[in-house]
Design goal:
2 strands; two-stranded antiparallel ribbon; 46 residues; little secondary structure
Length: 46
């Protein structure tokens, strides 16, 4: 991979991609409504 900058020469970078780390969840199993995992005080309104 090469990082390109307007005001600096290009920087070549070697990148290793490894499998794993995060589990995939089905779209229907993980809602993004008004109830938040990060905010325990969030309330749901009908």
């Amino acid at each position: 991979m090469v990082l390109k900058f307007k005001s600096h020469p290009d920087i070549p970078v070697q990148v290793t991609v490894k499998a794993g780390g995060m589990e995939m969840q089905p779209e229907s199993g993980h809602g993004h409504g008004s109830d938040s995992h990060d905010n325990p005080t969030a309330t749901s309104t009908p």
